[in-house]
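ESCALATION

Customer reports they have been waiting on this structure for their group meeting. Please prioritize. Original submission:
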Amino acid sequence: MVQLPRFMEKTLTIIGGGLAGSEAAWQAAQLGINVKLYEMRPVTSTGAHQTSDLAELVCSNSLGSNLPDRASGLLKNELRRLGSMLLECAENTALPAGAALAVDRELFARTVTERVQGHPLIEVIRKEITKIPDTPTIVASGPLTSPDLSHTLGELSGEEHLYFFDAIAPIVNHDSIDMEIAFRGSRYSRGEQDEGDYINCPFTKEEYEKFVNALLEAERIELRSFEDAIREGVKAGAHHFFEGCLPVEIIAERGHNSLAFGPMRPVGLIDPRSGRRPYAVVQLRQDNLAGNLYNLVGFQTNLKFPEQRRVFRLIPGLENAEFERYGQMHRNTFLASPKLLRPTLQHQSRDDLFFAGQITGVEGYMGNIGTGLLAGINAALQIKGLPLLNMPPTTMLGTLCHYVTHADMADFQPMKANFGILPPLELTGKKLGKRERGQAYATRAMADLESYLSTQGQ
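Update from on-call: job pushed to the front of the queue and completed.
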């Protein structure tokens, strides 16, 4: 009888079938580990997901910039080098979005689901997990972790979870957009290849004033005791607030022109009919491959559904908009990772327990995928008794993992990929511009990644 390697006797449990959990399952299975991937949908709903597919994108359908000198673009290049399955699926289901990577969200999730369920070493189990097993485990339950599992994780951390709220933008039917008013175009167009990727709804000053006044007066869904926190940017840590997904109505409260300098900024856009830059603009991004659905970029909201219909129809070009999905808010939970985790994404006091995704405090789709990839590989290496990967802090994935495991708890808040958390560049005299600095960070990161992987036999 053939004796199997000892590690093949062990099974890795992964809790959560979102971006991080799906990537982790794939990476571990590719390294020969048997995986049981638990996803509670559709048995237990999250209140924000629409389907039972793995890796469903709840908010935007954009995975950020593809440009190599941008933080998101650098992270994508690192994950391409590391063999990310979800990034491959995203590129295979991509939609026109200028320099960004946007996907048909339904096709993307369905593609990931088929890949994961088709792997011979992965078993997908539709069941809610409320307790952490005492066997090798990755917790990738995401920002919509169920109350029972949240309670378990709260006990593990010795304190209540930190939290913030996320918000979903509305989606409208393309045929209901008035293209006699709206126009196609991308900011700072780079040529014909990205002309027309976005639909732009231009405002005059008078139209903008009317819209903002209606937005400020509109009725909102009651958030009970959390309403005051939402108004300031939702609490994420002892003294700070996470503002990455603030509702447009909250941004508008900060000043009448705050939207014109925020999600409705018109820079880089010229209305072809007037030949001038609009006073403000709402951009719509294609949301599916068929091209019949578009989401309102940066327009997360917590207005009541009838109010969304009334107020957002004041947007020029959307006077007769048909809403396929209204915006809403939901609670996101994350751990006090600096107290609990190592840069390998292991728990401080338990070597075979890993965490990945947004629950670690890493923000953004690509950050979730990246931490899932690292946790999946490291969990497999831990089971095999091999050294774990500890990514260089000069790489974007490495610096994200370093940030969430080393930040001062008094200042800890969710963080997405950005050059500001990377170690400073060693410059010799010449001052670099923003784009040159981004390219220098990217060049250093990829060189350090290659050097590190070569020492690991990768």
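Sent to customer with the following note: The longest helix spans residues 434-455.
Escalation resolved.
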